[in-house]
Batch of 2 targets.
Target 1
Amino acid sequence: MVERTYDENTVIIFDTTLRDGEQSPGATLSSAEKLEIARQLSRLGVDVIEAGFPAASPDDLKAVQRIAKEVGTEDGPSIAGLARAVESDILTAWEGVKDAAKPRIHTFLGTSPSHLAMLRIDKAEGLERIRKAVTLAKSLCDDVEFSPMDAGRTDTEYLIQACAVAVECGATTLNIPDTVGYVMPSEWAETLEMLINETPGAGSGSGIIWSVHCHNDLGLATANTLAGLQKGVRQVEVTINGVGERAGNTSLEEVVMGIHTRKQYYDLRTNIDSTQIMKTSRMVRNYMGMPVQPNKAIVGDNAFAHESGIHQDGVLKNAETFEIMTPETVGLNQSRLVLGKHSGRHALRVRLQELGYDFEGDDLMEIFKRFKKLADAKKTVTDADLEALVADEEAQKPQEFFRLVDIQVSSGTMGMPTATVKLVNQDSEESVIAAVGTGPVDASYRAVDMIINAPNVLVEYSVHSVTEGIDALGEVTVRISPENGGRTFGGYGADGDIIVASVKAYMAALNRMIASIGLGDVQPEGDAATVGISSSN
């Protein structure tokens, strides 16, 4: 557990991956997945976890409640719930976070002309709504945060009035959002400086924490956030991998490593254990089914890769020639040879613990079986392979309505690609069926679809190798949506056989979709005890 300390030079890291990040199209998370991510965020050392929007749905409320109870411990992070400036939202948010040792209610109201028009209220009515909302939140919870939504397009005079009302009614944190990613760093810094200096009761020594929440529509979220820190902001609202609506939010890893790498420039610190960054990034990527672009700062596959001769020569002579931080700082291990087919469970468990994973009993045995299978197929097993195995194991944890047992594929230039798939349902009933497709993956997915009657559209299919070489472990992420439209669901799979990885990813996405839209009682289209053959249409 990270030991959190605070002073005037400490930047509070407010992570909203589970709330704003989950609003990314296709990034829906189950309650179990949210809890696992929250636990990892706590290990990472974030100070506040915005666990969700409790009023959004009963499932969101349950997820926030569980995180509050199990992660919001005395030595853990504060747990926040988001609420509109509406009585029912605030009461529901309190129901969500009240069991946390350090609960927070985060309420907001749009203050820009376009948002006031959307709410059909004028400025005076807006101030009155802020007064009522913050007063109610304060009567329930000591720690109250207020956000004037779309502050980036709100005139400064009205922002000062809105913030002053919030402070008067008991808000302890004032969060200034650039909701649509509109502002430029220099004007944002000027606005924030004016707010901090001119808002009554919220200046230096008042105890009020100023915060920023920036979106990345113009690619300036990190720059705007760092500009705020230079003007006295001491809380930043961020997400892992920069996930979020539209172009995303400010990236946690970019801000944290910016502060860490340029210590002399900012003279600031955070409570983040940076060696947990890569593990957290991979967990969020896998659970949300959203790959990280290779050239993404800090956590992209190419962030610490060098291909050009000049770069390679410079790094070999002195890593600092082209690297401003070491891979180990963010949790990467450059060791290539780790374990092999002669390694035992004890060696595997120790190495996994060194990588930050704790497996015991049946969980260890299950991942050991998969490790041995991979080790038999590869000459060496690297840390990256182990990370992928663990990610694939954890990706299968959500409720499984159907599970892949076996798959056999035939393809090539001489005949039609055919896949035979054996699945088992929750009642341990096996279904075996074969299908023909345009390729081995298409045939496999068609066979699965014939067993699981859950019509859907494959929105995205992405595959890449974890390590180099012909024996590399393959990772696949897919996103699907119900045939009649609606939100999308992500899935992840990893295996030495890319077809198997593809089916694992598809099955994970299907199980998530079934759990969400209530198709748990779907039955095979044919006889579950027979082998069927289907031709593609």
Note: Residues 520-537 have pLDDT under 50 and may be disordered.
Target 2
Amino acid sequence: MPRAPAIYARISLDRTGEALGVQRQIEACRKRCKALGWPEPRVYSDNDISARLGKRRPGFEELLADIEAGYVDGLVAWHLDRVLRRVVDLERVLDAIESQRSPVPVVFLQAGEIDLTTPSGRLLARILAAVAANESDLKSERLSAQRAQAAQSGKAHGPLGYGYDENQHIIPAEADVIREVARRIIDGDSLYSIATDLNARLIPTPGSGKWDARRVERAVGRDERSGLVALINAARASEPTRAAEFARHLRRAGAGINVATAAWVREQAWAEHVLSDDHGLNDSTIAKVLSSAEIPADRSYWRAANVRAMVRRGSLCGWREFSPGKRGGYGELTAPGTWTPILSKETVEAIREVTDRPGSRRGREPKYLMAGILKCGKCGSSLAGSPISGGYRYACSKQPGRTHTCGGLTIAGPQTDTVISMAIIDALADAKVREGSARRRKSNSGAEKQAEATIAEIARLRDTYTTEFAEGRLHQDEFDVMREVWARRQREAERVLGTWVPNLHAVLSDVPKGRPDIEKWWAGASVRRRREITKALIEKIDIEPVGKRSNKFDDSRIGEPLWRF
């Protein structure tokens, strides 16, 4: 790839999905390149992505990679804060530029040219980056104060969610589901049984069939509709002809969708951006384009977690809920709202009391010790337990909503439980494990530095997506999945740093210490109790595929446990 100047453009929030703010920045930067006598620039952009809290910006990452590879000999942007809002991002840009043999001039339309190859230029850039970061912090404080004031006045913050339309009017069919779920929870039904019943009756979940960035990513990962996935990948790529193809052939993606005409494409608000010769699209904009084209997303499913979150919301009883830093449904009922309630305030408070009780999310009694802890050695998915003639087995199975699993691995259940139980008993008999002192030593290696960076990144992601969830731009089930991933990544990082050990003293309070006594206790304990201990000790265990065909149980397929200590 030959060297060429680059344009970088970004806006934090694109409410329309048209990316016109990015387009205007690109046009202005292109004019400056022409005035400087530079050749035609390459364009890198990120639409609807904030730079303040560390969200991954594909365009920015691609720009850095091309600078480091020597493909960029100049950079133009509207303002420094379009490129970065954090000093740490500036240092990455400086490192990329300093790695080049020849200077890379950087021009900001609102701040002039900054020579990042000189000490004074780098100092000026660091000052401007610090100012930009401070402006972001002040803006965040103002927004928090405004939201608190709005909550006190009873004003809704964004959409009211499931049960209401965009005009805050009750949707009768969804309101009926809410009232039924509320009654069943108060009557003692488990969240699991309610979710199972709603799925069996094909009742849509909140946001079912609607696109957002997470569902675009999920569609690609599962490759459920190959034609649509091919077009999404084309739109993601920075290739104008393929991005244009995405728009022109959008309606060919699903069965029963009529082919869009060229005239229809040109009439859409997002057409100018999609058909431009500048850049590809991010997942958020792709989601808005798919929604505009009336192509439905794949069905999502009820789970205990999203049933619980859906029915706890203060908006259902007509009250404004304020929960800074908390998940929706866990905030204080601050003031009466102006919309019509679906449930009474007493009902919502009763539901919160029931679902806050210890064990309220346990659902049915577990049958299989290692379900969910064992992982498929082929696809990495969790293995589920299932009964078979004469016993049970653990299997990677195809189920509704789990089309990413391979369904091609099984292992005998009783023998597997026995092998792993012996390893757990060995661990329980180890005094160092019981005392929580079996930790890894710290060191100054690159792995530790990466672990520290991972923890900082997760903290930023939690802040960002908690805000997205609180403002109604992220569904409960998606937020739950993300939180699980963050927790797993953080545990991995903390293990590397030697700073995370589960509270085994509380978990093992009733477990004896001598090995013979442990074995006897383990044999008589309930499956639920043994699972609690297993999950406290073990992160996961990989099960390898069958080698040679044999009817005999092969314990060598059971991988080494990934211990939590």
Note: The longest helix spans residues 119-152.
